[in-house]
Amino acid sequence: MVAHHMFLLSLLVIATTMQATHAVNYVVTNNARNTAGGVRFDNEIGADYSRQILPTATDFIWRIFQQPNEADRKSVQQVSLFIDNMDGVAYTVNNEIHFSANYIGGYSGDVKREFTGVIYHEMTHVWQWNGNGQAPGGLIEGIADFVRLKANYAPSHWVRAGQGDRWDQGYDVTARFLDYCNSLRNGFVAELNKKMRSGYNASYFVDLLGKTVDQLWSDYKAMYGNSK
Ligand SMILES: *[C@@H]1O[C@H](CO)[C@@H](O)[C@H](O)[C@H]1NC(C)=O
């Protein structure tokens, strides 16, 4: 009986250790404490909230991308968030998210909600495939904003569905278009991302939806009365 318990306990220890080995580590650093935006980050958002939302966004992205298994995902051990004294909004490079303290400081409205929405976008860049560098930049940004849209963090200043000039314009325009494509085939964006693991070809749209991306864009525009 004791031996039996010891065996179960060993299994539990092994299972826990394995999980710990593969868990993603999240690190938050505020490099802008000497700026108004850095102070606002500490007061209205905070490192604790950030450390909570980073893994939440990751789990959401793995679900949207239909990547239940480790083998499906990009191999990333650590994601670092830096609040930096810089212009712009945010960017992601080498699994480091750099967030502008100036943007946080100057944002009028619910800054915590805006911060969270941007984190979903940036975290998507950590996990998405980029077609081995061959995918259009507008599509990469569109997928990141599609995730933000699906997480219910689309801000009010975004274009409405049907607006925009080109499918690969990027950001909100492409996100709304991808949402249309996804409505034609549930899981479309997940399947597109899977195909983008090793390369990119516009024919992926034909493979998944039976139409060229240009045809899909004109169908989409027509559905909304070709609104600007
Ligand atoms: C893209 O796919 C089409 C259709 O399958 C193929 O003919 C073409 O060679 C591919 N282009 C590239 C660059 O792989």
From TrEMBL:
It comes from the Eukaryota. It holds the Pfam family BSP. InterPro entries: Uncharacterised_BSP (IPR007541). Residues 1-23 form the signal peptide. Keywords: Signal. The keyword Protein biosynthesis does not apply. This is BSP domain-containing protein. The lineage of its organism: Eukaryota, Viridiplantae, Streptophyta, Embryophyta, Tracheophyta.
